[in-house]
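User: I'm writing a short report section on ligand binding and want a predicted complex to refer to. Could you take this sequence and zinc ion and write out the structure as tokens? A short remark afterwards would be nice.
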Amino acid sequence: MLRKENVHFRKTNKNTVVKRVREVYLRNDIPCLSTQCPKEPPCHEAVKVESSLLSAEQDYYLIPDYSVALRYVELLEQEELTHIIFTETILQRLQSEDKSRTYKSLRQVAKDPRRRSVVFSNEHCKETNVLREPEESIEHRDWRALVQTAAWYRRHLHGCANIILLSEEFNQEDVLRIDDTTGIKVMSLKEYLTQFWPRTAVLHELLTSLKEAILEEDLENKTQGSTTSKKASGGTGYQEYKPLSELEAGVKSERFFQGVMRVRANHRDQAFIRGDANIGEIVIVGSEHRNRAVHGDVVVVELLNKSSWVAPSTHISYNPEEVHAAAEDEEESSSGVRTREVKPTGRVVGIMSRNWQPYVATLQEGSEKEAGSFHLVLPLNPIIPKIRIRHHDAKVLANQRIVVRIDSWPVNSQYPNGHYVRSIGPAHDLDTEISAILIEHGISVSQTTQGFSEGSLKEMPINTPERPWVADPAELSRRRDLRNHIVFSIDPPNCQDIDDAISIKEIGNGQIEFGVHIADVSYFVKENSLTDLEARARGTTVYLSDRRFDMLPKVLSEQLCSLRHHVDRYAMSVMWTLDSEANVLTTWYGRSVIRSACEMEYEQAQGLLNGKDVVPGLDAKICKQLKPSVVLLAKTMRKVRARRMAKGGLELESSEVKFKFKEEGGGISDILPKQPLEVHQIIEEAMVMANGYVAQRIYQGFRESAMLRHHPPPIESHFKMLLRAAESRGFSIDTTSNLALANSLRECAAKSENDIEFVKLLKTMATMAMSEASYISSGSMEVSKYAHYGLALDFYTHFTSPIRRYADLVVHRQLMSCLLGSTPQTTDNSSDFLRNGLKMEQVAGHLNYKNRESKLAQKDSTELFQTLYVLQKTRNPAAVENGGNDPEAEDLPFIETGIVSEIRENGFFVFVPRFGIRGPVYLKEKSGEISIPLSALKQSSAGESDHLVTISGCEMDTDSMTQISVKVPPQALRAHASSPNVLSLVQFRLFDKVKVALRLKKSLAHRHTIYMTLIGLDHQATPAAVSGTGKIGSRTTTVAPMKSHSGRLFKKAGEQLQQDEVKRIAQQDPSLAPLLQRDLIQGIQEGQQQQQQQQQKKGGKNSRKQQQRVVDLEEVYYQSRPESSLYNLIESFDRFRIVESNESPSS
Ligand SMILES: [Zn+2]
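Assistant: Sure. The structure tokens for the complex follow:
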């Protein structure tokens, strides 16, 4: 071993340069990390390799130089680029120049096994180490080092692979040093992309965009260098960050606080960090105090003077796009109940690390018409600030959703600087919006990876009509043959990826043999195969409302693994012998082969269970054969479930909905709340049982690294909302344990039998208080903490869905390893992975993240389709008749009954269970004006147009968060003296049923959002007597029901009445005119607008003026844009298919 000295210069925080001498021990056993290694054994054999190896199939490897690594890291991150050799030279230099973000990104690429990229320790390799010559620049020495490395690779691999040195800085002299015959090429990124990726526009666009950003940055640096007052913040109000040393010292001495900054989703002016245990949450208000930090950044905060502390906001945001995020905020705020106490308030003084992501954004309206190449874009996610990008031709970006990234945020710049990455399509086009959802949740940043790689597909078994897959006789002989058992599956209709099947029969002595059979995915997907790595990276199949993104290639997920009927399928089975009381006598685990008799649907199984002899869709013979099994299964699972419930298992509620799509013409035909059937519970119970048993079994074999799923008890304070809500109805809820909670909820349900919605909402509140369940490695916490609170089980894991969840696949491997004992059949290093607690913890963390993002994407897609449904329902045919471009056409009313689900300072949230839609009703405008529709004040004979007449100047009272009352002043009432039975006070309580009109706030830059306008209490729907309270009994319940009309008729009638009403009131009392509401006045204006419109159409040239609203209750603003895009969503409906989600509701 040779000793050598390497000299480095390092810039310190104080901008002085220090010389560092590092001793390097040169070795001659540094591995090449290529599968082409001609040595015997290959030189990487001796070392533990973290990454995957450079593969033999690639005929060239890439070595980026420092100029590329530093400034084009994003291009290297693109999944198309593989087989990159990251040299120690550039990594060391990134570190020494404090480019830790770039350094981490490169490491990340090397770590991703799908990228087949490696880190080569060239500085430690005897043959590639290069000494710096006297007077030689660092850049030049480093360049020589890379050339040396390239030459070594050529020699070592006997010229099997060409080497491409990527450089944006090389000059002629350096190029000449490379002999053309060596198989080493020097290329700029442009040359490389042109030669190897000529048609991959995404890469070319990104390169152009990065080059522009770099130009810009260089320019800025120059101008900054020339001005003396570097600290001038240019009126932005931002301040320079404190030096790192001061930040670190400040955090240590508790003068500063460090944490991840989160912007409140429903009030983006407010951000917060969690300080230490003593101080709790620290609020950061306004962009000046946020000081250029972006949501997710790790920041250092200094507290403000106590006199400047503020209380978090308790009103519903008036910003439409913030409102729909309100539910998310529930988890973020520590109490779940809004308090008005002041909280520690601070400002950001430094940033420890940035969390900048690719953001989906839209060009600020009109920006494309402005001169110059700088433009502001508005991120789709309203908590991300506007970003300034450079683009030479912004016209092509107008009305498009684009992906942008932030590069820097100088102190003198109001907005961060970023660059354009690529365009994903026209705004409000369905496919675009779905892509946006995926990108925002990190599900597939590159559209090219939605498919599986060629390499992965090559690993797949062949199953074509010509060459159907058949079970291997040798494999069959190793498996328990269950083909003579009656096995069946129960799933939603059209289920393609059938993970689980069941068998059950009486075996005498009152005993039952019960089996759960799960697709044997681990047989087909070998550990560390390309398919395995891809599945691990994806983590889960993502189910959106109208489509799904599979974790595994279709040949497995829909064919060979899927437990289809009438074919032999490999399974992992758990077989129990149960006594007549469903107590477990024996358990058997192992590989099996099954032949399902029937792919049943839930409805069909429920039919058999209800006693039917024949159910639609199944032939009589099958029904006769399966009915006893289904009945026995139900009988058995009821017992198992009852025992689990007695231990504290919770029956929770979610507001999940299903979309039904029109078969022809596109569009949503209906939204259906998920219909709970008993058979759902029965299947769920069987799966819970299997998961619980497998969890115990793998824990026996893997004390330190079993993949378990735990559900910690909720934080007590999260129950506040639930407790208050129950209290408002006269119930008390015991939350001391899951059993106590379950019993309390059951009691509420029993006493409120006639109010199903109340019970549902209460359970939903309980669900919202729950902590998140997550995967853990058993070694990471004490055994006592493994428990699953919601299911009331001491051990739990995910075993039953390996086709669509990676965790289950790991669990299958662990189970197999346990069953085979300590000597696994395979000789690869799989047991190493399964036994490595640390690695398992990492995988668990990754899967938790993927799971969460997938759920959020699902939620976003549900909201997108709900919005579409409202758009569809409220769309005025008049607008469509004019080619869909008449935004002045009034929306049609879409009236529904909902429940008051949350009271706020300026209004309340209403939940419409029919559609699973939650939205705000504002009683107080942004200006402070409080108003209420006439219809809400009438106890009886409310006219159809009464909700269009709004009484302003009211007073409001919300001292408790369970009720809100509006008082109407006498002078406002006078105008309606002719109307009989007009109340002067109206109260809204939590759980009250109200009639609302669902409306849509349209936006270009953001998603459309749903809001509601009040019509009044739904006296009909509110039961006269609610048990357990008595408080509500005093309210009058004699109101004529609203007559139902077809939308169009209603509209006509409404228009007429509206205008009559205006005239009448105006005649009676002219001073009331300002109190008249938007809709009212709009009626008068409609005529004028139509005239204007016609003039514009005649003129042709004039751009349409923005529609003026007289009383701007909810800040509805129509953006001027090509109106056709509004309806693109609807029109693109026929382009997609319906996919059923196979998600079980809990666990
Ligand atoms: Zn080698």
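A remark for your report: The radius of gyration is 33 Å. The chain is about 30% helix and 20% strand.
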